[in-house]
Amino acid sequence: MKLKSDLVFGRSPRELAVAYLCLGAVFVVSTDLAVASAVGSLSTWTPVRAADGWAFVVVSSLVLYGATAYQQRRAIAARSELETSNQQLQVLSRVFRHNVRNDLNVIQGYTDLLSDRIDDERSQECLETIRETTDDVVEISEKLRVIEDASPAPPSGRIDLVGAVREAAANIDRADVSLTVDAPTEAWIRADESVEYPIREVFENAVTHNDESVRRIDARVTENGSTTCLEVRDNGPGIPDDERAVLRAEEETPLSHASSIGLWLVKWMCETQGGTVGFETTDDGTTVRLRFESVDGPTASTECACRESPSGGDTAGASAVADGSGGRAVDDG
Which helix (H) or strand (E) holds 307? Predict the structure, then answer.
């Protein structure tokens, strides 16, 4: 939705200045008359005595007009620059996601074809490097789609965090992963369905960046008054220093690209939902904490109307392997 950048408080600078001039002129006369009446010398008041006050009002209205007009021009220029930048980013995003990805698919296809025809070990290693690099770029294009589709507007709905956590955990279907979820039956937070991406990304990072023979992931959902916290702990090597620097600086450095984009997205998307993200790395692994605003769950009638499928769950505080039930979302808007 486009904003009327030529208006200030819903009015143009000229309208503001004229309104101030009229109100100021009336105010000067009324206050002078009130003071003269209070001291008992109303007969001594003349319009000439109000000239000084009117002159001040005229000058200040001109100053007001100049200041608001200047700010208006700056706002229009900033908005134009922002719209141009957004258009450029949208074009670059589409080119990267579609054109570049199509070219990457061609590279991947020829890589697989060459892999079947080349026998020497050195060439196979080179082909594997090409394959890993193209897979990495394809992954970046998928993450760019998440950024493009996400809305920066504050969330208007609520979602069952426990259901979203169990759904994300159920997608981790690997024999070398030991995963537990400790959570109440449900925990509703102020968020929309896009919050499911950072939750899913946290679980996937805990598996992908872990070289242990048995990759352990312990997830816990706790409610503390006005906030609800998701804590995901793993036994991996931890987040590298350069990637933590990206999260602290809130910008992408030349040293960190695909591996840190996922973590940056987790941070950005949680913050757009009004939440916060914390990372803690120790010798035993990494702990990621996502905190959100707690809200009351929907009433029974609302929940039945918007529920797509029954949601299973553990009893409060029980620890169990995720059962795969999906999250429930309700739009309050």
Answer: none
